Amino acid sequence: MKVLVIGKGGREHALVWKLAQDERVKTIYAAPGNVGMTEATCVPIREDAISELVQFAKDEQIDWTIVGPEGPLVLGVVNAFEAAGLKIFGPSREAAALEGSKQFAKGLMERAGIPTAAFAVFTSAEEAKAYVSRQGAPIVIKADGLAAGKGVTVATTLDEAVRAIEEIFNGDFGDQSSVVIEECLVGEECSLMAFVHEETVIPMVLSQDHKRAFDGDAGPNTGGMGAYSPLPQFDEQAVTDEAMTRILRPLVEQMASEGIPFTGFLYAGLMLTNRGPSVIEFNARFGDPETEVILPRLETPLLDVIIPLTAGEEPEVLWSDAATVGVVIAADGYPERPQTGQPIDLTSIDSKVLVFHAGTTEKDDTLVSAGGRVLVCVSQAATMEAAVADIYQGLASFDQTGFFYRTDIAKKAFRTT
Fold first, then answer.
1. Is the pTM of this model over 0.90?
2. What is the average pLDDT score of the chain?
3. Which residue ranges does the record assign to the ATP-grasp domain (predicted)?
4. Residue range 172-182, pLDDT digits in tens
5. What is the DSSP string of 115-160?
6. What is the Cα–Cα distance from 392 to 405, expressed in whole angstroms?
7. Is there a cis peptide before residue 296, judged by omega within 30 degrees of 0?
8. Architecture of domain 188-310
């Protein structure tokens, strides 16, 4: 088979890496891909150039296309491919509004009776500021539209909340016409993703992302500084079962009943409160950097899940018990003003560490940084303690000039050990 992966980051590199292990996959293309994707042929087509992507898939007789990022999904890449008779895994433009508009997602959750934070939506900065002054802090401020994982502020003071509102309406997170303001849920977060086709939902294993930039969950929110799986501090089966019953199945059933069935990778960001799991956000694609620790645990070939699932079957999905930890190496200044163009010495990373490229390019035959999140480095071991020790030993000699990473990824997993 020929497979096309749309996207260019660490998540897409992990998808390419996983597909390359399938002996039935003859050729993998990545559009646009990145220099680290040696398992694929990278083609210079932007992920939002939908008509060019469709034409390429036709010309190359691509058997399956898998979409990584949210941008092309919201733009309707799935609609365009399906209209051309091409097989693609991802939600339609209408279903991708689950991520494209937080207001839309909140409405769906209300109609489906899904537990989530109380919220209000404002199109005026002044009205939003007046609301937060009445509600007080802590409070959560979210840009309504896509913001590359950075348009969320958990404000601990009213000044911080007001500043976040002003940033959203000033265009710091792109063209945003409204803001969603939520109560601040208390608990521990986790990510539950699932393979979905209409009303069939197959949960993946749980993972936990680390959103804050610095150790101890300090600093600004980022797209994610690391992740790990499994989560030994929880009863994972109980969490998954409750989330399936109260959140994932009600969501896909509601979407199907409203004529916008979901197909693709469904991401539920959950807060485990004293009342059970509650939804922080839904995404219409694989999480990043969660993908980089989930796919190494997936023992079933990816296409052995996607192909039967989209044919109306429910495939068996097998998972490894291996403890998996991923650490993001980010550029200095990330997330506000990442410095790019810094040389990267991959030879200083232990060869046992699995390295996914997220924001890299080549300049004068030298690998350099080209984004905020540069690499995602992953280790697997029999225990979480061993996996954590391995990843940080593997990074001990890495030249951090121009880069930084958190040194406490997966620390929360040691509560029960």
1. yes
2. 94
3. 106-311
4. 777 777 888 98
5. -B--EEEES-HHHHHHHHHHH-SSEEEEESS--TT--EEEESSHHH
6. 10
7. no
8. 2-Layer Sandwich (3.30)
